[in-house]
Amino acid sequence: MTLVCGDEGVGKTTLLQLLAGVLPTTGQLQIRGLRLADRPGAYRHQVSWFDPRDHTLDELTARQIFNTLPQRHPDHEPRP
User: What pairs with residue 31 in β-bridges?
Assistant: First the structure.
């Protein structure tokens, strides 16, 4: 698990959207040997994007949100 933090307006959301593959990029994104450009489905299977404007998550703790991964991504395989 990774925490990204910083002041308002410094690019946290943009960075996370780029890593999740939901924003276009001119660079190369690779996670665990999977390149977004080559295998977008497999790449996106390695990341999860939670929109901070999703009000259904407001009452949940971080642990509870991560516990929703199996429902959001049925093929999700948690890392040890």
Answer: 34
Are residues 15 and 34 in contact, defined by beta-carbon separation less than 8 angstroms? no
Q: Are the C-beta atoms of residues 6 and 12 closer than 8 Å to each other?
A: yes
pLDDT, one tens digit per residue, over 14-55 is: 988 888 888 888 889 998 899 999 998 888 877 777 777 888
- Tokens for 50? 């939670």
Whole-prediction pTM: 0.60
- How far is Cα 32 from Cα 43, in angstroms, rounded to an integer? 9
**Domain regions of the chain by residue span:** 12-72
CA distance 17 to 14: 5
Helices marked H in the chain — which ranges? 12-20, 40-44, 62-67, 69-72
Q: What does DSSP assign to residue 55? A: G
